[in-house]
Amino acid sequence: MARVVVVGAGYAGVMAANRLAAVGRSKVRVTVVNPRPEFVERVRLHEHAAGESHAVRPLSGLLHRDVRLRTATVDVIEKRSVRLDDGDAVAFDYLLYAVGSTSARGLAGSENVWSVADLDGADALRTRLRQLPPGARVVVIGGGLTGIESAAEIAYRYPSLEVSLVSRTVAARLPESSRASIEGRLANAGVVLRTGLRVTGVRPDGIETDAGPLPSDCTVWAGSFDVPDLALRSGLPVTSDGRLRTDDALVCVHHRRIVGAGDAVAPPGHVGAHLRMSCQAAMPMGAHGADTVLALIRGERPAPISIGMAGQAISLGRRDGFIQATHRDDTPRASALSGRVAALLKERVCRYTVTAMRFPRAYRWLPGPPSTPTPTSAPKATQPQPHPQR
After folding, report:
1. Which pTM was predicted?
2. pLDDT tier, 389 (very low <50, low <70, confident <90, very high otherwise)
């Protein structure tokens, strides 16, 4: 029986562990190593910070019954084992690397910001928002999906606060008509848009921009993401931004017993250049990573990944939303959906992600764009749900 260790229990890690256990059955013994015994729905962390959502659920109720959970942090990955922060070690025959991503903190004065990139950050922001008096100023930095959702959610839950969104642009990757619609809906939700600005630093009482200072009683960072440095510390091949380098089947380029999946992994551009950090990409990567591990165990050559994107869904409070349809290479289509229907569809997307992890054998995904080689052994695809967070 092959020993498989899955490092990380986010969307990619849980999907991979459950698929390994469900498909591999008696051929594998799966152990998940994760710092906490809960699964965190990152797509709901902006809701959690605003005080509404239940973004945390026990892993014991989500992992396959044959998967073992080890609550610890991996300090280093060695040749055939992982060393844990409690001094213990777990041996493996194969390892699936799914450590995810977290908030980037390169901005000067980043100790003065709150974040929704992880549960600890969302908990701290939740506490801070409840402490603010009416009229207090909340500044959200970042015009991507995380920033848009965070600003709208805070404005919806705390109408007495003055919420601003600061960024060079809002939803920069979307068509001009979509950006205009989102900006209008943010304004209707009570969010003050301050676009065309570059943030250069954060102080306890505000932010510095290239156009001068802006006061703030609570500054929320919703900018770029970083990945943990575990692969780098372990001497594994990484890209300049710290992601694990893999081949087109998600196998580590210099360690054939390590397979990667999710935000912290960089497959070659011809199969992965269009895969942005999102659960929309992480879940099929987790499923394919599990299939790759099982192929290696059987002595077979694993198939290259073929993953297509479907769209970007954005919540704008609890009663409004915006969904931008995309081509499989994540470039936008002409069609979009907005309003209450979009908000309801986005909620169904969030629920679908958890349901899909509970039925890993049946999980299918959209194949990659035409320029991406699609292996004949790839799973039959159905339309996936778009990722609403980033």
Report:
1. 0.92
2. very low
Cα-Cα-Cα-Cα torsion 134, 126, 311, 59, nearest 10 degrees, comes to -160
- The residues facing 326 across adjacent strands are 332
**How far apart are alpha carbons 19 and 350 in whole angstroms?**
20
322 forms beta bridges with 314, 338
Please say whether the beta carbons of 152 and 322 come within 8 A.
no
Tell me the pLDDT tens digit for each residue of 85-137.
999 999 999 999 999 998 877 789 999 999 999 999 999 999 999 999 999 99
Measuring CA to CA, which residue among 191, 188, 182, 216 is closest to residue 202? Answer: 216
Closest CA relative to residue 170, chosen from 180, 160, 156: 180
The separation between the first and the last C-alpha atoms of the chain, rounded to the nearest angstrom, is 38
Reading the block at residue 145, the tokens are: 């999906």
Q: Which residues contact 87 (CB under 8 A, 6 or more apart)?
A: none
Using the structure block, give the residue that is written with the tokens 């954060």. Answer: 202
**Rounded CA separation 297/276 (Å):** 29
Contact 5/96 with Cβ under 8 angstroms? yes
Distance in angstroms (rounded) separating the CA atoms of residues 329 and 331: 6
Nearest to 271 by CA among 374, 173, 382: 374
Distance CA(363)–CA(355), nearest Å, equals 10
Q: What is the C-alpha to C-alpha distance for residues 48 and 84, in angstroms, rounded to an integer?
A: 29
Tell the burial category of 105 from Cβ atoms under 10 Å away from its Cβ (0-12, 13-18, 19+): middle
* DSSP one-letter code for 38: E
| Sign of the alpha-carbon torsion through 152, 125, 8, 245 | positive
Q: What is the largest CA-CA distance in the chain?
A: 64
- Give the integer Cα–Cα distance in Å for 351 and 112: 33
Number of neighbouring beta carbons within 10 Å of residue 328: 19
| 167, 139 contact by CB (below 8 A) | no
Angle at 201 between CA 200 and CA 205, to 5 degrees: 135
Element (H, E) at 265: strand 265-266
| 362-367 long-range contacts, CB within 8 A, separation 24+ | 363/15, 363/19, 363/283, 363/284, 363/287, 365/283, 365/284, 365/287, 365/307, 365/308, 366/307, 366/308, 366/309, 366/310, 366/328, 367/306, 367/307, 367/308, 367/328
Q: Which of 172, 118, 188 is nearest to 338 (CA)?
A: 188
The residue written with tokens 């054998």 in the block is: 361
